Amino acid sequence: xxxxxxxxxxxxxxxxxxxxxxxxxxxxxxxxxxxxxxxxxxxxxxxxxxxxxxxxxxxxxxxxxxxxxxxxxxxxxxxxxxxxxxxxxxxxxxxxxxxxxxxxxxxxxxxxxxxxxxxxxxxxxxxxxxxxxxxxxxxxxxxxxxxxxxxxxxxxxxxxxxxxxxxxxxxxxxxxxxxxxxxxxxxxxxxxxxxxxxxxxxxxx
Length: 205
Fold this sequence. Notes:
9 strands, 5-stranded mixed β-sheet, Alpha-Beta Plaits, alpha+beta, 4-stranded antiparallel β-sheet, metal-binding, single chain
């Protein structure tokens, strides 16, 4: 039996992205006995199951409010905070738009993008490849966070005072540069070291 894999997320809400019990019950009931579910570090479930049933299963999962994304070397769905300051103050709508723009883009290596609606940064955006932090009505973008290995480190401030209308274009420019100049399986942090922050900043400004 040929197996295929895809990612599942619950989407964004005030209070955080959470799977509802009934969603997990449906997921477990329809994927089949031979399927496997893996909990990832970027708030996705990876589902590995019979490839010939994937389209059917994904359709049913979308009906119950779950979001479907590709697994592997792609931009992951946005890893966001719990929007504890409220939808408007924390920027829930721009986070949703950012997710729609970036999730599922093919990249040289898996790319994690974090979003925090205030400077508390509870979603740990500075440990993501690209981190977005909302400060009042503007945004700061950090790049190169690395949470693993003996060379773990926080991201560097890339741009500050970014207006809302420029946030998604700036993040997409960064991703496109990684797509164009990144080497296969090259981590984003290593890509930044090779290209340099200054060069990348010049290319997106």
